[in-house]
Amino acid sequence: MNDQKRDSTRPSTIESSIVSKIEQKAARVGVIGLGYVGLPLALSFVQKGFETTGFDTDPAKVEKLGNGKTYIRHIPEAQIARAIEGKRFHATDDFSRLREMDAIIMCVPTPLDTHREPDLSFIHNTAKTVSAHLVPGQLVVLESTTYPGTTEEVLLPLLEESGLRCPVRPYSTDGNSIAISEDAEGDFLLAFSPEREDPGNKEFERAQIPKIIGGVNAASARAARAVYGSVFARTVIVSSSRTAEMTKLLENIYRCVNIALVNELKLLSLRMGIDIFEVIEAAKTKPFGFTAFYPGPGLGGHCIPIDPFYLTWKAREYGFTTRFIELAGEVNSAMPAHVVEALSEALNRRKQCLHGARILLLGVAYKKDIDDLRESPSLEIMELLLKQGARVEYHDPYFPRLHRMRRYDFQLASVELTPEALSEPEAVIIATDHSIYDYSYIVRHARLVIDTRNATRNVKENRDKIVQC
Q1: In CA terms, which of 82, 87, 147, 353 is 20 to 30 Å from 185?
Q2: Type and span of the H or E element at 266
Q3: Mean pLDDT within 128-134
Q4: Which CATH number fits domain 13-239: 1.20.950.20, 3.40.50.720, 1.10.10.10, 2.40.128.110?
């Protein structure tokens, strides 16, 4: 249950309407972007009894969902089929149906461009589409990770091209209730609520993860609280959309900086002959003041490799250089090149050359046991190997083929993990430590193993084949 105090401002007409519809389970929710964030969110509203429409520009996704099929491994087809059969969920690429919605939630990508600067084209294009179909009385919420100010400075002006208005008004809050504020009746409401997805994490159920909400005015924050409060066990209101945007960046930059720290310590430990993983395990026995982070071949996923660059880009507008954050980004970005360098040195010690060598990469997902390629360091390792003249193969149980991506087009299919497939290449790189892998089997058959994840820590035999990287 949400522990909410009584707000000291009177609700607006739009807010009252949305809250009433939520309480009566009559609100219609639209989710734009049916990927790793949008589809689970849409199904969460369906499970709570709300009529939910998923919007996506990809007709293949729409068709699959309409047939009760899934394209995200951790979302079972039975769940989608139940939602479709219950007539509570509809997937469409007809964006004119946005007019029918009470709440519109935008879950679209926010990648970096080729210059590692924010690419807001998905937000921009989606906002233009929403604006074309926006009607009075609707709530619009952005969930995409972005720099502070995006909701007010980018999204709001685009939505107001519709001719409708949403006033920006300050308010204060203690996280549960909103104190007295100057509110104004507008034509629609607008808020930001960052997604907090962690694919593959079975420890926390989605509904149990507190939902951060920041509105451009008090009415928007309260209406968004009502919408999300119907799905999430706890909502936390912050004093503005900017604060909510910065909260998401802090969460991910915290992880980015700490991973950079252990990555740098790993590089030093390798030179000093110290096992950094043993060091981390020993340090985490301290019951206070230490949180364990682990090194790897680089950062992956949609958030951690990208978010620091969003903030450093925005900081320049204020004449501020985020040196600490930028350094962390540089350390993490250099890790794929370190893996290739370690491989090259290991081959040299065997009087072999990387150019022309056959290399098998194990795992292309950005982390273990998920079917997510976004920003995976494995892809950059593959590209670096190909540039060095190596012949690259891969195996990943979650990716039978590598589809064309924004930056990469390898045209490769996953090989079967036979003894021959392991023994014929000059080296095997463990890039993603999937649980399905039998690491003793891999080490036994491979000529050389480059272990970037400490996956072979329990392998007792053939240790001379393993290079920790």
Answers
A1: 147
A2: helix 241-272
A3: 98
A4: 3.40.50.720
